[in-house]
Amino acid sequence: MRDVERAHRERQLQPGDRILRCANVEMSSAGVFNAHARVADRDDNYNYSVRVVEVRLQYNYNGTWLNLRDEFPADSWASEQDVERTNSWSCGSSARKLVRAQAYVQWLRSGSVGADWVTTNSVYICPRS
């Protein structure tokens, strides 16, 4: 019975369900930040190609999200995973900012392309102490 239940669950998966998509805000050193994105094939048996198309470090200004850094690294498909980062942004003497990371990722299998935006929760950064 377990094999039947497992097979049923497997059939209910949608395209892209086996794709790991994540983004985060990284602090590479005191007061220096960047956005980081990763997309990966969760299961080697499904043979997805993946890529990070765009990665952004954004800040909130009066309710509107604006880009501090925006990179477009996708130049080719990766066979298992793609990891990309924006260039670093330094607080300097900036006031405290509400920031988030956002990434646009794609996956390819048998000629069919899937895509998704991944957005982190927001976090306050700066000023440097």
Structure description:
By secondary structure, the chain is mainly beta. It is built from 1 helix and 9 strands, in the order H-E-E-E-E-E-E-E-E-E. Strands 3, 4, 7, 8 and 9 form a 5-stranded antiparallel beta sheet that branches. Strand 3 and strand 4 form a beta hairpin. The protein is elongated, with a radius of gyration of 18 Å.
Could you tell me the strand content as a percent range?
over 45%
Distance between the termini: 60 Å
How many alpha or pi helices? 1
Per DSSP E runs of 2 or more residues, the count of β-strands stands at 9
- Give a quick account of the main beta sheet: strands, pairing sense, barrel closure: 5 strands, antiparallel
Radius of gyration based on Cα positions: 18 Å
Class by SSE composition:
mainly beta
Q: Unreliable stretches, pLDDT < 50, 5 or more residues?
A: 1-13
Write down the overall mean pLDDT.
Answer: 84
The coarse silhouette is: elongated
Helix content: under 10%
The string of secondary-structure elements, in order, is HEEEEEEEEE
